[in-house]
Here is the input.
Amino acid sequence: MIDQADIDTPATAPKAHAEVEHREQYAGQWTLIWWKLGRNKVALFSGAVVLIIYLVAIFADFLAPFSSEHYQGRYAYAPPQPLSFFVQNEEGWRFQPHVNAYTTDIDPVSFRRTFVPDPEEVVPVRFFAAGETYHLLGIIPTDIHLLGPENPRDPMFLFGADRLGRDVLSRTIHGTRVSMSIGLIGVGLSLVLGIILGGLSGFIGGAVDTLIQRIIEFLQSIPTIPLWMGLAAAIPQSWTPLQVYFAITVILSLIGWTSLAREVRGKFMALRHEDFVTAARLDGLGEMVIIRKHLVPSFLSHIIASVTLAIPAMILAETALSFIGIGLKPPVVSWGVLLQEAQNIRSVATAPWLFLPGAAIVVSVLSMNFLGDGLIDAADPYGN
Amino acid sequence: MTLVAKQGIRRSGSSDRRTPIYTVEGLRVHFPITRGVMRRIVGQVKAVDDISFIVYRGETLGLVGESGCGKTTTGRALLRIVEPTGGRITYTPPDGDPINVRTAGRDELKAVRRAARMVFQDPNSSLNPRLPVGEIIGEGLHYHGIARGAEIEDRVADMLRRVGLRPEYIRRYPHAFSGGERQRIGIARALAVNPNFVICDEAVSALDVSVQAQILRLLRELKDEFDLTYLFVGHDLAVIQHICDRVAVMYAGKLVEIGPTQSIFATPRHPYTEALLSAVPRPDPRVRGTGERVRLAGEVADVSNLPSGCAFHPRCRYATERCKTETPQLRPVGEQMVACHFADSLTLKGVGSYAA
Here is the structure.
């Protein structure tokens, strides 16, 4: 039985500690997620790295010393040159960024040319150097590069040169564009497919749900490499590199949408029977308004987190396709294409710097994964 | 003065005008059990099976029973949150023609849902954590087309004040509130659109006992202030006795007894009601041990496979052969309606002797 004393306590009781204001009380979902993510230093650091990588992709023309086509045949397989900032002469140390030029040795037995950095000959290098012309962001015509040799004909290969004497650093920077954007665009397409099909599946249910789920199971049961090979083989040889690029993106996202669709469906099903959705229905909201106002905001953060984890998978898929020679092809520059060019015994034995694009892949995939893990943890700031 | 006596006075005041507000006739909510790829129907879960009752304007009707007896489903069927599979539900507005809720079209249903509201059990899951409370409470005002723009904010602030919260809280999010305060927000949302009927679905079950008392008191105050009618779904008999004018007892999807709170508690006519009442804890040490505890054998009846005859007979200590074969109908016995063959002859123990 309820005690009489309890009943006589005033109905307007909750006021005791109301005077203390906390910023948490006014914080919405995204603010809470941001605070929670902010406590995860690894995720924050990875997020900064991801941001830098995308900035590199956007400003690739400016950051790369040369264009991806620029070559100096004399310097085929030239090793990386270290960048130094000071030169010593009779007056002492002087600020002069430079690399050291090469001297060429020819092996009398094999007639193979080897490059040795020449400590005597300095190639002056300057920041904001004039080089090849390009359009910054596709609009502003300019010829300024962040770093370049003062004399454009001088060698400057910070990551070494490939078999045609092209700068590996420049090509890696230019490859960032294709490799990082194929992840974004591919995941974007998967996301559209995943949200529409997963949403339909979870919202309508019944036969539609069964059909979509069986299609997903079928797609997921196909071994990916043979499927890619089959689809990639169907791309006409006459297509331009740009068309091939989009075709590959579509192929990747045709498989990538399945897991996202599952996730969206699961969220839809779980949320549909939440009391607050029922309450919204009783409040007179239509189904579309409920989806927009209650359902989507409730799972959007989870979707963003899984998208962050899906991008590196796409990047790796593109790399794998290009590496086995059925994805992108030269003259398109992507990390996968660059690695494909490195897959011969000579590169492994004498020009290991050709694998530096692989390091770019590892760094970007790892930072994306750490960021995605952090986002998943932060995505639901209300759980305990 | 005891609570029961208090309620007796209030009841006699309100029962002068016995106008029905919600009439339920033969309500059925059955869920099919499907099996296999082809979704072959192999059985029915009879969550609610042929129940009838009337909620009168101005009263508080309690709906009690064990978990799984269909009381929550009944409450939800009244607003068509779950679709009834049979029967008739009629809502009678104070000024207008009765609306058949089961066949109501979109606009009619919206009108019913504006006049008849619901307070949910769990204040954590019934408030969207991603919206500030102002938006949660104002949602009904906006989408039922009652108010617009700044007017919504004024009315929400007013509602907050009426449920005992400060109007400045309007921009806070639900996580900034305690369980009791959240339930106040849920009540404010239900009442914001100025309804005349409220279904309280275990509205205090998830709260601490001390907070329960505050919320019950608030509900009672608001009932007078807004001239409300309550259907109070619950399993806590102490709460039911405290707040309800009449009580309906459900067992396995069926109504077994309905009548005025005082007479149900003092002289239960159904063996199941007796068993429920004997389970009420008695805080007074002087009466401890005096009452006989009726221990029910076995499990709650499985609503997908109901026993024959009276669904309660496997657990009933008065059951005879007749109970196994013949289903008892609800019939008037004294002040109550009872579904038991032996309602006239059994002498059952209530809690009235000590509560009076």
Summary: Confidence is low (pLDDT under 50) at residues 1-19 of chain A.
